[in-house]
Design goal:
Elements: E1 2-7, H1 10-17, E2 27-30, E3 37-40, H2 42-46, H3 55-64, E4 68-71, H4 74-91, E5 95-99, E6 102-106, H5 112-130, E7 134-139, H6 142-156, E8 160-162, H7 166-170, H8 183-191, H9 197-202, H10 205-211, H11 214-223, E9 240-250, H12 253-273, E10 276-287, E11 298-309, H13 312-326, E12 333-345, H14 359-379
Parallel strand pairs: 2-4, 7-8
Antiparallel strand pairs: 1-6, 1-7, 2-3, 5-6, 9-12, 10-11, 10-12
């Protein structure tokens, strides 16, 4: 048996956590640059506010119904996610963190008679320790656990649900609501007369193999109770990407170079968190494809490093070299970013006969980066940074409605006046 723990309206719940005055009030959270809706509270959904809807289209509606609007605060959400996941991992040993607000549990070592009671206790513990409400679905496979979570949250409005009567519930779930079945496959399945989760679970395996690819086959088997995927083991990333749209379009080289340097620092931070080195990088810039009244320009340059490294100075120098080669004046740039590929573990570095740095160079680089990390970990991210990132950030994305970072900034702690 598996259980899926899913935080309810996670971003909106985080915003409400330090604002008790927002209980039962409609809340929405906006994407980068305050563009589109990426999270809604239940009250906002009732008003008909759709996911992904551009904010400018519903401004009047938000004002009319006094909807509380927030810019995305990913630092705050990430910290709350870590708190929720730490409670789950302290409560059960076999956990797969699936996303920022979801985690799978393998309950096969727990007697069936105790599983629901354990999940009820875990749900109450998460709410008590973090203040974040969750729903928990229980099922014989990960796909059924995901479906059980959907039923608990959307259909029954209860915190914990065990999908034991599978035939009844599968026949009520539209095929498009099944985990792993996207919009395109939903259309193709409907054309074959497969309209519900039960229809897919009941189809003969030989016919399934003739019509659909392996992922749909696995989904069908999991819906019928056959385990096709257990908890995923941790796997190092195949690539690391850091990019953001600019708060306002940029035409000069300097602010774009500062943005690329900042993205490089963020990517390098993720690199070192996993004890990896990068062997290949690419840098890209692009204009706003929706502004058809402006000239368009999109370009990227790939750079093969002489040897794998995690030295921020070296990576930033090469990233700016790439940017200089492709930057063209006369364009209004909307976005820039960087991508690290060919990632390898520090313990598995393949030496190069001709371009290998000396042991002294490697030692000095590691000492510098270790001190760098220690200072930023102790005093906060960006306490120490390269001058290449600049001081003022005219390129930084818009976030005019961002809430305080209650859990990560001393200056943002709420004050209690006696």
């Amino acid at each position: 048996m598996y259980a899926l723990v899913d935080c309810n309206n996670f971003y909106a719940s985080c915003e409400r956590l330090f604002r008790p005055d927002l209980q039962n009030k409609p809340i929405i959270v906006l994407s980068n640059n305050d563009g589109c809706i990426i999270a809604r509270s239940g009250e906002a959904k009732v008003l008909g506010i759709g996911m992904g809807e551009p904010f400018f289209k519903i401004k009047a509606l938000c004002k009319q119904h006094q909807v509380h609007v927030f810019s995305s605060n990913y630092t705050f959400y990430g910290d709350m996610s870590q708190r929720v996941m730490s409670v789950i991992e302290d409560s059960w040993p076999n956990v797969e963190i699936y996303s920022i607000d979801e985690a799978f549990l393998d309950l096969k070592s727990l007697p069936a008679s105790q599983q629901e009671a354990f999940c009820h206790g875990l749900e109450q513990k998460i709410v008590r320790y973090t203040g974040i409400p969750v729903s928990i679905g229980i099922g014989p496979t990960k796909t059924l656990a995901k479906l059980a979570n959907h039923i608990a949250k959307k259909e029954l409005k209860i915190p914990v649900f065990n999908i034991d009567n599978q035939r009844f519930w599968l026949s009520r779930i539209a095929i498009g609501d099944v985990w792993g079945i996207g919009r395109q496959w939903s259309k193709k399945l409907s054309q074959q007369g497969i309209n519900t989760a039960f229809d897919l679970a009941s189809i003969e395996l030989c016919r399934l193999k003739q019509l659909f690819y392996v992922m749909v086959q696995r989904t069908a088997l999991e819906l019928s109770g056959v385990v096709c995927a257990g908890l995923d083991e941790f796997d190092s990333r195949k690539s690391i990407i850091a990019s953001k749209s600019f708060g306002q379009m940029q035409t000069a080289y300097t602010p774009i170079a500062q943005a690329v340097s900042s993205h490089c620092a963020r990517a390098c931070e993720k690199l070192r968190e996993q004890n990896l080195l990068v062997g290949h990088m690419s840098v890209f810039i692009q204009t706003n494809r929706f502004r058809l009244d402006l000239p368009q320009y999109n370009y990227s340059i790939a750079y093969k490093l002489e040897y794998p490294t995690d030295d921020l100075r070296s990576l930033t120098h090469r990233a700016k070299f790439c940017l200089r080669q492709m930057f063209r004046p006369g364009f209004h740039y909307q976005k820039a970013g960087i991508c690290f590929t060919d990632l390898i573990s520090k313990e598995q570095v393949q030496m190069d006969l001709f371009n290998q740095p000396s042991d002294e160079q490697i030692k000095q680089s590691e000492q510098l980066m270790s001190v760098w990390e220690a200072i930023n970990n102790k005093y906060g991210r960006h306490t120490l940074r390269l001058a290449a990132e600049g001081r003022g950030k005219s390129w930084e994305m818009r976030s005019e409605l961002r809430s305080p970072s209650y859990t990560t900034k001393w200056s943002d702690l709420p004050l209690v006046r006696l």
